Amino acid sequence: MAFKNLYAYSARFSHHGKSKRFSSTLHSKVSPAVMPVVQNEMPHCDFKPPQYTGPSYENIKDLRKNNLTPNLAAYYKKPLLIHSGHMQWLFDHEGRRYLDMFGGIVTVSVGHCHPKVNKALEEQINTLWHTTNIYMHPKIHEYAKRLTDKLPGDLKCACFVNSGSEANDLAMLIARMHTGNNDIITLRNSYHGMSPYTMGLTAHSTWRFPLAGVNSGILHVMQPDPYLGIWGGSACRDSPVQTDRSCACNKETGCVATDHYYNELEETFKYSLPRGKVAAMFAESIQGVGGTVQFPKGYIKKAAELIRANGGLFVSDEVQTGFGRTGEHFWGFEGHGIIPDIVTMAKGIGNGFPMAAVVTTPKIAESLSKALHFNTYGGNPMASAVGIAVLDVIKDEGLQQNSLDVGTYFLKSLAQLKDQYEIIGDVRGKGLMIGVELVADRKTKTPLSAPHVMEIWETCKDMGVLYGKGGLHGNVLRIKPPMCINKSDVKFGIDVLSSAISEFLNKKR
Question: Please, which contacts does 331-335 make with residues 24 or more away whose CB atoms are closer than 8 Å?
Fold first, then answer.
């Protein structure tokens, strides 16, 4: 059916005043702006955002251009000016409501401005903002115990920092100090941070500056991708949905793709590393920025065993996959059947508050005592109070189970959408860590061009749904919403995406 019959553009889209207010504005105190009228109405929300009283939109654009560094690129042709947030919803300066399917880049875990987290922060602000850890304050100690109790084995020592880049930076230092070795392995297509130290771990040319020494001691090995890689097929991923590729895997042979990718990893050890002298391997449980890429079942476990056999540590980057997001487990690495030597975490740890952590064993943590090491803000009273509250909310509101239930429903609904549209090449993920790969040709897997992806993506925004995007070619929709979303939200998000794709395809005809 033609997209033009699905909605009629309002006055905002130059249809001469023949408009109807979009449901996103029905519950706002501010003067509502008009938006496209969608047959599938946006789910109800009782929250009423405060009226925006800040600088004008044009003033904000000027301030951004003149007073912020130019690397701060904004999403969308007409960037959003976000003013308020409530659980899974965001509101712009004119009162439009948006369903946030990206969660502040996988950061808002329990919901925007969650009242229990807000209350914990407010109580702490009124008690003690900051003192650093040169003095003892109770919250960091309480939080360290609560956090490490969520981890298996001997992962009982936490060091708090402020961002995922800092966490991975520190994990590199610890691994090299503990092992006495220098070489570190990461996977191609991985993202582990943007500090000068972690930029070497990140294996995306688009995220790398031409700096001397960035790659010192770091090797990027073949990415084990069942969809785009050399090997893989319809039984390789730990996901409710699989690729369309045929697969030779069975119960007797196990995952054939895993064996092939593991052999490639062994080749790196044979030819590119000093025998038995590796410091660490870093891996995301599911690659985030790279486009929600999952690995063949069993690969991570075998890779960790090889690293340890050569004197190194396995570091699990849980910056995006931790805190219940994958649903079945609290940590993504649990889905791979391993206990890492070091775990790094950020983003969802604080629901948007700038905090992060490195957790390791007491023995490995001893390496930090070889010299002074300190982080002024890491684990400060405010961050620790927020961290405790986030753990409480995840448990009390059953958000890990919600990630599993709603995420599985989301993935299966997207798989049905894939059956409808050839432009969807792959749907993948686990829980609420989801990717949708858009292609120009499903057989060749040629990525849909950036302008075409942008067209679909922008239309979704205009209809009230904010999706992320990623992958090396920017052709993967990244779906990582606050874990409080429900099936009605999913249905609306699916309907909007379907409408956006339909409009795009109709224009091409």
Answer: 331/150, 331/151, 331/285, 332/284, 332/285, 332/286, 332/433, 333/285, 333/300, 334/152, 335/238, 335/285, 335/430
CB atoms within 10 A of CB 235: 20
Is 420 strand, coil or helix?
A: helix
Q: Would residue 106 be called left, alpha or beta, if left means φ above 0 and alpha means ψ between -120 and 50 degrees?
A: left
**Count of alpha carbons within 13 Å of 256, Cβ hemisphere only?**
13
Classify 439 as helix, strand or coil. strand
Structure tokens at 315: 């570091």
Amino acid at 323: F
Cα–Cα distance for residue pair 281/172, rounded to 1 Å? 9
Residues 6+ apart with CB under 8 A from 414: 241, 424, 427, 434, 436, 494
CA atoms within 13 A on the CB side of 401: 5
DSSP 254: B
**Six token digits for residue 348:** 């969802």
Among the residues of 347-398, which ranges form H helices? Answer: 362-365, 381-396
Query: What tens-digit pLDDT sequence spans the chain (509 residues)?
Result: 333 333 333 333 333 333 233 333 333 333 333 344 445 689 999 999 999 999 999 999 999 999 999 988 889 999 999 999 999 999 999 999 999 999 999 999 999 999 999 999 999 999 999 998 888 999 999 999 999 999 999 999 999 999 999 999 999 999 999 999 999 999 999 999 999 899 999 999 998 999 888 889 999 999 999 999 999 999 999 999 999 998 888 777 778 999 999 999 999 999 999 989 999 999 999 999 999 999 999 999 999 999 999 999 999 999 999 999 999 999 999 999 999 999 999 999 999 999 999 999 999 999 999 888 889 999 999 999 999 999 999 999 999 999 999 999 999 999 999 999 999 999 999 999 999 999 999 999 999 999 999 999 999 999 999 999 999 999 999 999 999 999 999 999 999 999 999 999 998 77
- The pair of three-digit structure tokens given for residue 293, joined into one six-digit string: 């890429």
| DSSP letter string, 47-89 | --PPPP-SS-HHHHHHHHHHHS-TT-PPSSSS---EEEEEBTE
Q: Which residues contact 145 (CB under 8 A, 6 or more apart)?
A: none
Decide: 296 and 261 in contact? Cβ < 8 Å.
yes
